[in-house]
Amino acid sequence: METSGEQTAADVWARVKRRLRAELGEDIFASWFGRLELDSVVEGCAYLTVPTRFLKSWIESHYVDRVLSVYRSEAKDVERVVIGVRNSLGRESLPQRRTSDMSRPSTPAPMPMTAQASEPKVPSLALPHEERTENSDLGGAPLDPRLTFESFIVGRSNALAHAAADRVAHAPNGQVIYNPLYLHAGVGLGKTHLLHAIGHEMRTQGRRVIYLTADRFMYGFVASLKAQTSLAFKERLRGIDLLIIDDVQFIQGKQIQQEFGHTLNALIDAGRQIVIAADRPPADLENLDERVRSRLAGGLVVEVTALDEALRTSILTTRIEALKSIHPTFEVGPNVIAYVARSITANGRDLEGAVNRLLAHATLTGSAITLETAEIAIRDLVRNREPKRVKIEDIQKLVASRYNVSRSDILSERRTAAVVRPRQIAMYLSKVLTLRSLPEIGRRFGGRDHTTVLHAVRKIEKALGEDHALSDEVELLKRMLQE
């Protein structure tokens, strides 16, 4: 009889699944109900299981009424539906846990979920296992536990970005502000740290957070297209409280960009928070669809600028103090810290690399860290640091001095060979060593047209390939300007 009862329950469940597939469509069914299994039916309660907590939470939040309604149409004696998570050791037998010996420790059974129950409380996403499960379902990346607001060092270059991030993370009652919050900066200046800090803080509030890099977003969308589950992928993304996208400048492909734009619109219209990071402002993301750029620019756009020397000193001091708790003999004097802060100006990652080199020298050789040893230890970082920002005025002055003409001659309308060649070289160097556009360079050279600048650049480029002496001369000018 027991076997017959189990077979009957299995037949009913098979009919329930067929009806759910027909009513909801193949995409939604495959995404949300393909891994939903019947465990047992006990005392009018159907115990169902799924492999992840994310699926459990989503079905409870969005489809439990539909599941119960379809189930009752097939089996009148079913009054409740309970959804549990299958553990890694196999199927979780929910009714057996209820009736097992209470003196033995066991995992509590999940609370029943009925069609009349109030909106289920979303479980806290702060637990590492839950975070891994939910992110893996969405193709998301885990948050780095080291990157919190507490470990972020604030200085002049990042104060505004930090304040905006903190306001978003601590908004009262789930209020959405600065939507989207868009942070942009060069490599290693702390924008990703702030993204993770926001995610950590909102997870501690029980909010549903997904952190995606651009490549993970693209991979997830393309994978869902291949598996014909793109509708479910979109629904999952739009059912969260905070979407974090890092390195948005790498999102490519017309269809993917369109979906990204639709996702932004859906989340913003639904009052969900979005935080974006990139290496440039929205207007400069030339590969992105114009409507997406406009949407990104419609929030709060904040730049994290280069780290000033005081902030670099603070970062170094903090990192060294943290390492001293592990390596008590690791001592770095203030003069060495000041030297490293002055020498390494590119980004925070190079500062981290400098500290690691100093630690390796101290622990491997057993000798004290002096200015001389620090100089040797960070030599490669100093040599490979970003070149100095060159100004057009500096180029004009150096070229004029080198060719025995005045700067006013270079800016003038004079067309003698003694002036034309230095002027063209100065225009070429301005194009190569600065980020100025051709029209801007033309304006800085006496209000000339951009076609004049383009002609000069092309003429010098051709001459460099033919005249080795000129090539050596121009290379020398480049080094002098960048030192």
UniProtKB/TrEMBL annotation:
- How does the record comment on the protein's domains? Domain I is involved in oligomerization and binding regulators, domain II is flexibile and of varying length in different bacteria, domain III forms the AAA+ region, while domain IV binds dsDNA.
Which Pfam families does its entry note? Bac_DnaA, Bac_DnaA_C, DnaA_N
Q: What does this protein do?
A: Plays an essential role in the initiation and regulation of chromosomal replication. ATP-DnaA binds to the origin of replication (oriC) to initiate formation of the DNA replication initiation complex once per cell cycle. Binds the DnaA box (a 9 base pair repeat at the origin) and separates the double-stranded (ds)DNA. Forms a right-handed helical filament on oriC DNA; dsDNA binds to the exterior of the filament while single-stranded (ss)DNA is stabiized in the filament's interior.
Natural source organism: Microvirga makkahensis
Cross-referenced InterPro entries? AAA+_ATPase, Chromosome_initiator_DnaA, Chromosome_initiator_DnaA-like, Chromosome_initiator_DnaA_CS, DnaA_C, DnaA_dom, DnaA_N_dom, DnaA_N_sf
Self-association and partners: Oligomerizes as a right-handed, spiral filament on DNA at oriC.
Entry-linked SMART domains: AAA, Bac_DnaA_C
- Gene Ontology cellular component list: cytoplasm; plasma membrane
What PROSITE patterns does the record point to?
A: DNAA (PS01008)
Q: In this protein, which residues make up the domain named Chromosomal replication initiator DnaA C-terminal?
A: 391-460
Report the principal subcellular site. cytoplasm
Q: Where is this region: Domain I, interacts with DnaA modulators?
A: 1-107
Instruction: Give this protein's Gene Ontology molecular function annotations.
Output: ATP binding; DNA replication origin binding; lipid binding
Family membership, please give it. Answer: Belongs to the DnaA family.
Positions annotated to bind ATP = 188, 190-192
Stretches the record annotates as Domain IV, binds dsDNA: 363-483
Q: What CDD domains is this protein classified in?
A: AAA (cd00009), Bac_DnaA_C (cd06571)
Does the record bear Nucleotide-binding in its keywords? Answer: yes
* Identification of the protein by name: Chromosomal replication initiator protein DnaA
* GO BP field: DNA replication initiation; regulation of DNA replication
